Amino acid sequence: MSQAETLLAGDLTGQREGLDRGDISASELIDASLSKIGARRDLAAVVSIREAAARVEAEAASKRIAEGRPLSVLDGVPVLLKDNIVHAGEPATCASRILENFVSPYDAGVTERLRAAGAVIVGRTNMDEFAMGSSTENSIHGPSHNPWDLSRACGGSSGGSAAAVAAGLVPVALGSDTGGSIRQPASFCGVVGLKPTYGRVSRWGLVAFASSLDQIGPLGRTVRDCATMLETIAGHDERDSTSVPEAVPSFGSVLDGNVEGLTIGIPREYFVEDGVDPVVLTRVREAITELESAGARFIDVSLPHTEYTIATYYLIATAEASSNLARFDGVRYGRRAERVEDLADLYQRSRSEGFGAEVKRRILLGTYVLSAGYYDAYYGKAQRVRTLIRRDFEAAFETCDLILTPTAPETAFSLGAKVGDPLSMYLSDVYTVSANLAGLPGLSMPCGLSDGMPVGLQLIGKPLEETMILRVGHALETRTAHHLARPSDTLPLGASD
Fold first, then answer.
1. Which residues are marked as active site?
2. Which domains does the chain have, with CATH numbers?
3. Which of 192, 339, 359, 463 is the most buried (most CB within 10 A)?
4. What is the pLDDT of residues 294-306, one digit of tens each?
5. In b/e form, how buried is each residue of 67-106, taking b as 16+ CB within 10 angstroms?
């Protein structure tokens, strides 16, 4: 293995140090990343590659670094974008046939920030169509595969980003999280995933699924890598009316390994035995013991409206999806049906041919709950319950600094196992959707293995207190070695150790 390949297999911090020491050049690192992406097409994690452009950008970064003037920690480092985050001159398919030939004319806010920091965007990652799914199986590019076991799902909808980081194609990637779409794939693939507070990161240039829930965030191999990425992409953006006008903290400066005196809440509703893999609960409890030994105090808290989160989420998210996806009509951009009879036929056939089954299901449900006679009974009531869910967290945070839960009720399931059972698929997000409904930051990180597959735990913080969950996550990471576990490059189909 070459020095570039060795560094690529590590984390962002190691790559930065190697570049600054002159062990390798940015061009060599980007070449190694592009080569690894090509070698791991079996994952179906990357759907488009910027090979020529990335090499040009890497050469420019190499010159800056050699002259001692790197732009940032990310200068010359390979990064991947989820395929619903736009990048000027690049495709943005959202894994949908309706956008399969679309090329973005502008950069998303986060894309601008990454490019200004010198990061080299090497390509785009697979996802569930329009971010609607929990397994990255709803994609025109085909399903992505979990690097730990190619017969299993890598989670969704940011599954391609999680799989790419886990397999060492890049040290960090961006995803989006509407109901757990960063955190659940991070759990399934054994990496770290962060959903920031709603409004912390600009949604300008993120193709909308559910506008009051969507948030862009990073996936990386370590908590520090995610902190570095968040510090780069966070900040107010006047083009996004929901962007919070708050200063961006130095997230990395709080990672001191100290949790002495912190109080962490354990919601009793999240630790029930029914419907949860007992090994998942065991691994999470082992992490609790580790943090207790480091000086953290744990108390029981209650989130009494937890049982309503899935229903509430799928009413609000589908209603907003119905509205947001109305723009894909075959007229202005995207797929347009041919040989149509009239305007109504154009709309119907363009959308019928362009959208997949899961997207159609959610549009139909969302249109129904917004319709006259049902709005108050479903959508209006869901919004009221959402307020109660947020108040549950506010009450819990009066007694604790943050909350700890499992990220998902199970480890990665087999591809195809839940495709025919939408309700079972939706329940994969039972532990994550509440943070989106309440607009709270959430971090998923590895806490061990179950039958050779990664288990994730989740830390949920108060609004705009990403520093707290990053601090606790880093403290746990320094006391364990779970984040160092890597899947094999030569894992045969169906193997899991």
1. 82, 157, 181
2. 3-258+440-484 (3.90.1300.10)
3. 192
4. 999 999 999 999 9
5. eeebebbbbbbbbbbbbbbbbeebbbbbbbbbbeebebee
